[in-house]
Amino acid sequence: MIKAVLFDMDGVIVNTEPLHRRAYFKMFEEVNIPVTPEYYDQFTGRSTMAICENLCEAFNLKQLPNELIQIKRKHFKRLFDTEGLDLIPGVLDIIKDYHQNGLKLVLASSASMTNIERIFRRFDLDPYFVAKISGADLKASKPHPEIFLRAAALADAHTSQCIVIEDSTNGMKAAKAAGIYCIGYQGPTSENQDYTIADKVISDFKEIPFQIVSNLIKS
Prior knowledge:
This protein has two domains: 4-14 and 85-213, Rossmann fold (3-Layer(aba) Sandwich); 17-82. Helices cover 42% and strands 12% of the residues. The chain has nine helices and six strands, in the order βαααααβαβαβαββα. Strands 3-2-1-4-5-6 form a six-stranded parallel sheet, sandwiched between helices. The chain is globular. It starts with a strand and ends in a 6-residue tail after the last helix.
């Protein structure tokens, strides 16, 4: 029996991925590293720290990972504050549907807690979620399962009683490594991701109302 739904944020709840991408490429330009779009695609779903550690090692940078993080956050904040941003179509309805039917919702995102709080304040999402976890605060980044194991624990649910909704290869790998049923959301910014990992793939949240997800897993 399902007790909890564990949501990714970027690309699932809100379409911040284009802003993150632009902020990263501004950072790449500022520190003068030749990151190709193909190289960048492998970072989807990973924490900013994990990405910046990878960049420092791959390009032998003089900057420390924390310095790269600050540069990227500077550019992201400017974009976040000046450009329009919307929830993914249908996601608020599905969040309300799950909440009204007694499911515990946990946000499990690789985004920093600062960005998570920005999104939750802007769209007033706190009333629906019992907890929020930032991968930036954990030892391991997706595709490691730590974030979803912690999310299940915060929901007071066994992993067999949870469902993860993810849009990235790294996130789907993390869900499956945690032993959790995974729904892959194939959205407009989720190209180049491997959805064969997911147990179920959707392109519209209308496909997974409570009546459907309540029957996806059995205790």
